[in-house]
Design brief:
This protein has helices at about 1-10, 15-25, 55-60, 80-85, and strands spanning about 25-30, 40-45, 50, 65-70, 75-80. It is of the alpha+beta class and about 100 residues long.
Length: about 100
């Protein structure tokens, strides 16, 4: 499929790594403070937090590989069906296993 090939060419190894972690049950959240500043954080299965670059999240959103539940003050991101497919993870778990979710 041309669309998939095009997406694969646009994704970095860091993009694949982030999407694969989401497919394993890790959680990506957007946090906004009272002043409106936004930051993205990835939480592993133990709840440890690491920062994710704004540009990386925006890229995955633009390519429709992730989508969000739009909640305030902490939105959670989900893999779209295409995002799940591109991870090639046959054992999706946690929030990464939500199916039929497209933006």
């Amino acid at each position: 499929m041309f669309g998939e090939w095009f997406l694969r060419c646009r994704l970095s190894s860091a993009d694949y790594k982030l999407m694969y972690k989401l497919s394993q049950g890790w959680t990506l959240k957007s946090h906004r403070n009272i002043d409106g500043e936004k930051r993205y954080a990835l939480y592993n299965l133990e709840g440890d937090e690491s920062a994710v670059a704004y540009a990386q999240v925006q890229k995955l959103l633009k390519l429709k590989l992730i989508s969000t539940n739009q909640k305030f003050p902490a939105a959670t991101f989900l893999l779209t069906n295409l995002g799940q497919k591109l991870t090639k993870n046959k054992n999706l778990s946690g929030i990464g296993s939500v199916v039929h979710f497209d933006s």
